[in-house]
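A quick aside before the break. I want you to see a complete sequence-to-structure record at least once, exactly as it would be stored in a machine-readable document. Don't worry about memorizing anything.
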Amino acid sequence: MSLLHEIHDDIRATLARDPAARNAAEVVLFYPGFHARMAHRLANALYRSGVPLLPRGIMHFARFVTGIEIHPGATIGPRFFIDHGMGVVIGETAEIGADVTLYQGVTLGGTSTRRVKRHPTLRDNVVVGAGAKVIGAVEVGENARIGAGSVVVTNVPANATVVGVPGHIVAFRDDSNGVLQRLPDPEWERLNDLDRKVQEMHDLVEHLEEHMTGLHDGHHETAPGKERGAPVE
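That is the input. The structure line, written in C-alpha cells, reads:
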C-alpha cells in the first residue's frame, strides 16, 4: 500500500468515526491524532533504519504539539484513529492492528524494565475508551471494547467488552448477528443487594422513629394525674 493511500485511508477513517469532522481539510489541519500519526510514520521508518536520536526527537516535538506521546518503535496498523488525543501514551513495543480507535488519556504501557516485549498488542477493530490503561504484554482480541477508565492487565478475548479496575469482561458481541450478550456480573449484583439492604434498613429506622414518636406523644397526653378534665387536688 502506498504512503498516499495510507494517509487517505487515515483521513477517511477519521471522517467515518468522528461526527464532528466536516471535511478532509479540517482533519489535515486541526486533528492532533492525524498529526501524531504522520509524525510517527516518519519516525518509525528512521527508527527501523537504525538512525539514532532523530526518531525520538521527531516524536518529542510531536508530543509537544499534539499532547500525544508515541514511541517511534511502536507498530501501528492502517486506519488508526485517535480521538482528541491529549494524554495518549503508546510504548515502544506496543502493536496496534487495523481500524483501532483510542480516545483521550489512553495508556498502552509496560511493566517490565527489560528489553523485551512489554507493551500491549491490540488486534483489529479494538476500541479503547477515554482514560483506560492497558498495561503489560497483554493481547486484546479483535473487536474488543475497553470501557473508559478501565485498567486492563490480562488478555482480553475477541469480541469482549471490558470495564472496571481491574478490568473484567461484562459482555460479548456475537459476530453472527451483532447482538451484545451481557454476562452476569457478581460484583455488581452484590452491590445492588447491599444497596437494597441499606434502603430496607433506612425504611425500618424511619418506621421505628415514627412509632416511637407516636408512643412518646401518647405518653405525655395520658400521663397519670394529667388526663384532660382530671380534678386537681
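Two observations worth writing down. The longest helix spans residues 186-221. DSSP finds five helices and 16 strands in the chain. We'll return to this after the break.
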